[in-house]
Design brief:
- There is one protein chain.
- It is built from 4 helices and 4 strands; from the N terminus they run ααβαβββα.
- By secondary structure, the protein is of the alpha+beta class.
- The protein has a domain of about 100 residues.
- The longest helix is centred in the first third of the chain and has 50 residues.
- The protein is rod-shaped.
- The N and C termini lie far apart (about 85 Å).
Length: about 150
């Protein structure tokens, strides 16, 4: 009789195992989504930083009075290749095999046009047949489609 009262419990029940598996699965999904969001944000930050570098290099290039392409204070069109040739950009920005881990690849013949209208500077990025106004960094989304 005492043997019958003694119940030996070895391991988990099926319900306990299912609950444990469900908890582990939900935690992995949550962590996976979080990591994915961080990777996307990191790429976005790198793209924005690269675009800022290109815009700054183009501005510096156009402000130089003796660059042989445009005169100081006038409208100016410069290519990524010109900026690399003049040493204002690193050539790894257009490396086709490993473009600085960017989603958007710059090409040597992409043009940056800087126009001066009523003492305001307007920046236009031209890639192929598309043109994108880049007057502030919020225009990045349009540039990304270029």
């Amino acid at each position: 009789m005492e043997n019958e009262k003694q119940i030996i419990k070895n391991g988990f029940t099926l319900i306990e195992l299912l609950v444990s598996i469900a908890l582990v699965a939900s935690l992995s999904i949550t962590v996976g989504l979080g990591v994915n969001m961080l990777i996307k944000k990191s790429k976005l930050d790198k793209n924005v930083a690269a675009l800022k570098d290109v815009m700054n290099a183009a501005s510096v290039f156009c402000e130089l009075s003796d660059n042989g392409i445009c005169t100081k204070g006038s409208d100016c069109i410069v290519t990524i290749g010109d900026l690399i040739y003049r040493g204002l950009l690193n050539k790894s920005i257009v490396n086709e095999k490993n473009p600085m881990y960017l989603d958007k690849n710059f090409m040597y013949d992409d043009e940056i046009e800087i126009k001066y209208q009523n003492k305001e500077k307007k920046v236009i990025y031209k890639c192929g047949s598309r043109s994108v106004n880049l007057n502030n960094i919020d225009d990045y989304k349009d540039w990304e489609k270029c």
